[in-house]
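Appendix B. Extra example for self-study. Work through it before the problem class; the solution is given directly after the inputs so you can check yourself.
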Amino acid sequence: MELKGSIHGIPLILILILIFSNIGSLANGTIEANFTGTWTESLEDRDGDGSAEALVIGVDIDVYVPGSYGIFGSVNDGEIVSNSGLVSLGLGRHRIDLKFPGADIITRGTSGQYDIKLELYTSDPGSNARSREIKTKESYDPTDFERGEGFPGTSVTVEGPEVLINNPLVEIRINTTRPLLVFSYPGELSKTTRAALECISLVAYDDQDGNTAYDPGVDTVKYSTDLARDVDWKMNLDLSRGFRIDLQGMAPMRRTGSPSLVAWASLTITMDSTTIDPQGSSQKFDIDIELFQPLDSDGIAIVQELRDESGGHEFQYSESDPYKTISLVDPSGKVNGMYTWVDEILIGEASADTLSSAKTGHRLDEDTAMVVFSYPLNGDTLQVFHDPRVGMDPKMPEIRGEDPFLSNRPLLMGAGFLLGASLVIGAVIITRLRRRW
Amino acid sequence: MDWVETASILKDVLVGILIILSMALTTIGALAWRRKRATRLLWVTIAFALFLVKGVSLALGLYVLGMISVPRGFAGTFDLMLILDVLILVILYLALFRRTG
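Solution. Structure tokens for the complete assembly:
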């Protein structure tokens, strides 16, 4: 076979179809997938005892561009939420199941039909989520449900001086000898999303500026303790039903100016499997302070430090009543991690059973954020209870749902076309030059 | 970038090269067959056309229809198969331009 004359008629149109059929999907605003408008609802009763562990909503979507898609659902304006995680889908109609845990419906659910807001999102954080609101066809009641044992996919392991809670979307390491929590995405993403929250000191203070909050440098410190240096921490780990982790320390609060005068307080930080966020992306933890004697102070405060351990994040503070949040924002503007709390606390003498309000303050620096929780001491207050939350962005692929397949980049195939074409044309040119010589 | 990611990129480029080379060889084969009407040339052209079908099917399956997914654990083998295909085509293509003898 010999090449004679130039090559004509190569069906370039085929190449163009292949390239342009995918370029469209790269543009913002292109419909890549959408809700079909149909869904199913059912109760999941794994143990067959008549009480459901979850409400399952099967949402149908049409996929126009193959890719990774997930659905985020929230019942009653975010009271109960669920996230499917990202799943790899080809063209056509698919059903994605959302499971709303029974434990959350028992705690925050109401009786009747549920209004559910659905958001369809992709693996591209820049793409706009499509949303749709539905109302369940059936009525449900919290008594229809029971608490499952822990969130599926959660594991707890002891690794050296740390206890590791591994949820589908967040990994939390709890130091057994310091009040230090390190949280990140699970798996490889943990290298770029790691943050640490450490309780630095416990301070009893007199309020000087009348705002009831502890303002370092302004208010008078009457008793204080360094929670890392002065406290002997002990951890209790109970894995008999889900998990429960208690990190407890006896804090010697030394009187300012008279260090031999010590007031004792017990500080306990607790995490358990009933307070994992439904989609497994965040974990609530309890702060319990027990004073062994009334303190002649206006309030008691925990000074904490939030650190960006992966680097490159910026701290941002936001409020969305009643939640207050310090977010870790990466250079692209995406929120990776967050520390969230409400001011509502419980206080009391024998037990923390009276509703009260904490005052919280913060100072944001480049790599660290100082967070101060100030709790009022009303004369006979001996117990304080507060429950903030650490977590990661829930709209991320679950570690167990990581795409097991190679990613596809059609534009790179275009680069292959160019390389191949260069080879073909180069050979033709060289042959012609040879003939001419 | 880990090696799987590199293999993923290589896969996309190789699919492009495979399509162009097989398309060129098929076209040349078809032109030669049209000129000489030799049965041997027809069979060779069909063989090249099958390479083209393979490349286009891969591209359609991977990028348009989403029917083909390459498992991460198969990345190296998949690339190796594509590299061998491309090498076979490159050698055949270059052989066309060799002077006789």
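Self-check: The two ends of chain B are 46 Å apart (CA to CA). If your reasoning did not lead you there, revisit section 3.
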